[in-house]
Amino acid sequence: MSAAHIFAGIGASHVPAIGAALDLGKASEPYWAPLFAGFAPTREWIAREKPDALILVYNDHASAFSLEVIPTFALGCAAEFAPADEGWGPRKVPVVKGDPALAWHLAEALILDEFDMTIVNKMDVDHGLTVPLSLLFGQVDAWPCTVVPLAVNVIQYPPPTGKRCYALGKAIRRAVASFPEARKIAIVGTGGLSHQLQGPRAGLINRDWDARFLDGLTADPEALSRIPHLDYVREAGSEGIEMVMWLIMRGALEEQVDELYRFYHVPASSTAVGHIVLVNRAGSP
Q1: What is the CATH number of domain 4-280?
Q2: Which of 1, 98, 151, 279 is most enclosed, with most CB atoms within 10 A?
Q3: Active site residue 229
Q4: Where are the domains of the chain?
Q5: Is position 14 annotated as part of the catalytic site?
Q6: 134-154, pLDDT tens digit by residue?
Q7: Is the pLDDT of residue 285 over 50?
Q8: Which of 127, 229, 265, 275 is catalytic?
Q9: Which one is catalytic: 195, 229, 265, 275?
């Protein structure tokens, strides 16, 4: 049996205002307190589980990439990743420690498995990655595990399909299974849930869609993988396409999973915040 394994998948929104609220000491204010309380059980759980590494699936918001270079899937292979300056200075959070051995193994395995990964040896990481870390670990002097960033283009059309993302998750599962070093790994899918930030439908939130999507992660991820892009835009808003990144997380788990925890909160800066924790079912093949 491989020394490395993915034991859990986590889904979490990455709203930038969440990071600002935490950084500015507003987490206990009435608007924000229910949101941070909703992540407390996961912070306690992950502190007990002590993963060695996270594979964190997120999208860059023109911090590391621009219209000059738009990789569909970009894998961070560096030893560390600094918080990005998104226009108001970098978040005052720890530098993210990479896991080059694991990242380079993933790059090789995924490319040979016919996924065209962009290998990135230097990049800053923005709120898409650091906000989920803050939600999972709180305000700390150093992140307690290494992180392999996996950036997905869901900004510039065409983004990858849900089917392709789900298949990439399965390929990640195979790649981790062939890694010879001991690693207890959790994979995190970020973004969403339903939200639209501009136009006549700005502020759109679709609770029913979000609930069905969260249900499907446990019960029928294959069906979720077949949702076309237009349905995300129509039902979940123009930024709802971020939800395909949760399918990478789900594909990296076994076929049978158990849902440990779910949290849903509206609103957080005009966004529906979703969160779920899934673990491989004992005895699942």
Answers
A1: 3.40.830.10
A2: 151
A3: no
A4: 4-280
A5: no
A6: 999 999 999 999 999 999 999
A7: no
A8: 127
A9: 195
